[in-house]
Amino acid sequence: MSGQSIPEQLRKSLQRHVEEADLHEDEELTQLMGKLSDLSAKVAAAKAKALAKRKITR
């Protein structure tokens, strides 16, 4: 596993497709990329919170 969250993996994959001209950047893709970035940040925060909680209980 890469260590990245699924939303982050998907966002990076979509970005690669845009760079390779498989996809064209439009408003819908821009909105999707923003939502994936937001979701990725939420996943990272939840992961950090869970890890912090685990350290406290040990």
Describe the structure.
The chain has 58 residues and is mostly helical. It has helices spanning 6-19, 27-57. The model has no long low-confidence stretch (mean pLDDT 91).
Rg computed from alpha carbons, rounded to a whole number of angstroms: 15 Å
Oligomer: single chain
Taken from the alpha-carbon principal axes, the silhouette is elongated
Structural class: mainly alpha
Q: Give the low-confidence spans.
A: none
Question: What is the count of helical runs?
Answer: 2
Number of strands: 0
Relative strand content: under 5%
Helix content: over 70%
The end-to-end span amounts to 26 Å
Give the helices and strands as they follow along the chain.
Answer: HH
pLDDT averaged over residues? 91
Give structural attributes.
about 60 residues, elongated, mainly alpha
How is this fold's topology laid out?
Blueprint: H1 6-19, H2 27-57
What's this, in brief?
By secondary structure, this protein is mainly α. The chain has two helices and no strands.
